[in-house]
Amino acid sequence: MVRITDARYLRDYxxxxxFSDGVEGEVDLxxxxxxxxxxxxxxxxxxxxxxxxxxxxxxxxxxxxxxxPEFLHSRVRVAA
Length: 80
Fold this sequence. Notes:
14% of the residues lie in helices and 34% in strands. It has 80 residues and is α+β, with helices and mostly antiparallel strands. The strands form two sheets. Strands 1-2-3 form a three-stranded antiparallel β-sheet, covered by helices on one side. A hairpin with a 4-residue loop joins strand 2 and strand 3 (24-28).
């Protein structure tokens, strides 16, 4: 099972993530913020509150929203 080992906000709805398998890169979540838990994240100033949770091994927001590491791994764009 892949886990996130580090993450940070970059810009707009893009986060940079590093995974336990060594893959790292950017994930654009602009089109993925569907459903009530993700509604507050559509506000760019709230989206910026993203943080890496070392216990959950993924990214989280203050309202309890999180994104599965496997999903993020499938969407990561590796820098060339």
